[in-house]
Amino acid sequence: MQVKTQTDELQNYLTDASNLPGGFAQKLFIPNTREEIAEILREANEKEISVTVSGARTGTVGGAIPFGGFVVSLEKFNQIKEINEQERFAVVGSGVVLSDLQKAVDQKNLFYPPDPTEWSCQIGGTVATNASGAQSFKYGSTRKFVEQLKIVLPNGDFLKLKRGEVFAKDGFIELETENGNRIKVKVPTYEQPHVRKNTSGYFSAENLDAIDLFIGSEGTLGIVMEIKLKLLKKPEGFLSGIVFFKDEKDLLEFVDEARRLSFDVHNENQDLIQNPKSKIQNLIDATILEYFDENSLKFIAEKFPEMPENVRGAIFFEQEMTAENEDALFEEWNSLLEKHRAALDESWFTTSEQDHKKMRDFRHALPVAVNERIVRYGQRKIGTDMAVPDENFASFLKFYKQKLSESNLDYVIFGHIGDAHLHANILPKTDEEARTAKNLYGRFIAQAIMLGGTISAEHGIGKLKSKYLQVMYGERFINEMAELKKAFDPNGILGRGNIFDEKFI
Ligand SMILES: Cc1cc2nc3c(=O)[nH]c(=O)nc-3n(C[C@H](O)[C@H](O)[C@H](O)COP(=O)(O)OP(=O)(O)OC[C@H]3O[C@@H](n4cnc5c(N)ncnc54)[C@H](O)[C@@H]3O)c2cc1C
User: Is 437 inside a domain boundary?
Assistant: First the structure.
């Protein structure tokens, strides 16, 4: 095991994509075995030293940033242990990088859909944040693919959780660790907001599966060291398009109809069995529906000079296809786009894997460009990650646009429109603009909560959003989360300050 204490050796582990300043740590551990993780945690637990779990640090809410104590990096847990083609699953160390897993499963003609845009993240990080991305519109978030977790608890005990094995009963979950210790956990009583994606606090449900407590727990309950993931058969191909609109109203009506048609197929195909009715009947069944507002397009125009001018927005869509239904599906999308007056001649369509990658690069280019610009001005991005119930989406988008255009701040709005989940990224150039942006962010939070939404649909709460989670749930439910944490981590050593303030422990 490597142990590092020098400032320059620790530097990279003191920050993440949130650019939250001030991170510091006493020691960095890079363990190779589960026994080494257990040893670190036992020492920390005895001495009540805080421990921050570090993945690839691509998180945007400061979850992996330490404020004192130990940092444990999972980078050596980077083995893909098994890819089972027959039963379609993979067993991986939590430090495996997402793009490495994607490549490995692709070579075996399999497919792992959770795709949080930033492919350099670790699988452990995606489990800890229940990451999701563009393809979650059809396939769901990371949670849907996690079959089993091997975890080291804060006292050094080992815990194995298999989906479908331990459920809540009469409001409690009872677990047994490898050493025979029993843990009784009171399940939180809050209801999840009625949104399509949510990463605000611990998961709760009436018939809660114990494994779901750890997915999205942001390094606060235990260290995930090994994960078994469900895989899908690799689709034969994808039809992809980036379609531009000259009128925003047309774009929104197009999205409405494409979502409705896709939901009809998704609802009949809950298990993602890959012989869906859509393939037989050639129905619209989008895997991706992503939005770019006019500002977003202008923001990356330099990198994509072939982009048409004078357009008000764009939609990136994808759908699985086969050689047999390629033409028929193209016809379906074409007529839907024509109906909603898309700028068809200037839009881009492809079925080739290479061009399809280019379209994904187009989608990836925006958050990357935003981060570059933020660094250039020495400011922090003020980015929203809220989602609201489907029926309130149109009014929420209107609210975003009205307030942002009144503010005179630079901004882009983009993201997962299929899931009623957009990111408004405000790009302050000065400290004064940053203050205005922060105030505006607070108003967006309040509006999302008022509309029955969530303050975080995919990035998690981390350290940056804990005070807003308190507004969303109120002290009573934050206390329930803290109780849950104490059942696993009585000394409150793991992920201090993530999800809720330390004062609740
Ligand atoms: C350009 C860009 C685009 C992004 N787009 C998306 C997106 O579309 N969707 C999305 O969901 N996210 C997105 N993200 C955020 C980020 O990529 C995800 O949150 C990712 O899952 C974090 O993984 P990581 O390995 O970097 O984790 P880290 O940032 O290192 O850690 C995240 C949290 O997980 C905990 N953690 C990490 N590993 C473990 C482990 N093994 N056991 C227990 N806890 C652990 C950490 O303590 C921390 O609280 C984006 C980020 C960037 C920079």
Answer: no
Does residue 275 share a domain with residue 184? no
The CA 59 to ligand 1 mean position distance, Å, reads 4
From the CB of 133, is ligand 1 less than 6 Å away? yes
Which residues, 6 or more positions from 107, have their beta carbon under 8 angstroms from its beta carbon?
Answer: none
Kindly state whether residue 465 falls inside one of the protein's structural domains: no
Q: Which of 121, 135, 461 to mutate for ligand 1's pocket (most ligand atoms within 8 Å of CB)?
A: 121
84 and 229 co-located in one domain: yes
Q: What domain count does the chain have?
A: 3
Q: Answer whether 80 contacts ligand 1 (Cβ < 6 A).
A: no
CA of 58 to the centre of ligand 1 (A): 5
Is residue 157 within 8 Å of residue 179, measured between CB atoms?
Answer: yes
Pocket test for ligand 1, best of 34, 100, 118 (most atoms within 8 A of CB): 118
Is the domain of 182 the same as that of 284?
A: no
Q: What is the DSSP string of 215-260?
A: TT-TTSS-EEEEEEEE-EEPPSEEEEEEEEES-HHHHHHHHHHHHH
Full residue range of the structural domain in which residue 51 is found: 2-73
Report how far ligand 1's centroid is from the alpha carbon of 481 (Å): 21
Distance 330 CA to ligand 1 centre (A): 35
Residues 196 and 301 in one domain: no
Q: Are residues 138 and 267 in the same domain?
A: no
Q: Are 255 and 371 found together in one domain?
A: yes
Nearest alpha carbon to residue 417 among 258, 193, 300: 258
- Predicted model pTM: 0.93
Which CATH number goes with the domain that contains 271? 3.30.70.2190
Please indicate, yes or no, if residue 361 is contained in any of the structural domains.
yes
Q: Is 418 in the pocket of ligand 1 (CB under 6 A)?
A: no
Give average pLDDT by consecutive 10-residue segment, the chain, 505 residues.
93 93 96 98 97 97 97 98 97 98 96 90 98 92 97 98 96 95 95 93 93 98 98 93 96 95 76 54 88 95 90 95 89 96 94 85 88 86 93 95 95 95 94 95 96 96 95 95 96 96 88
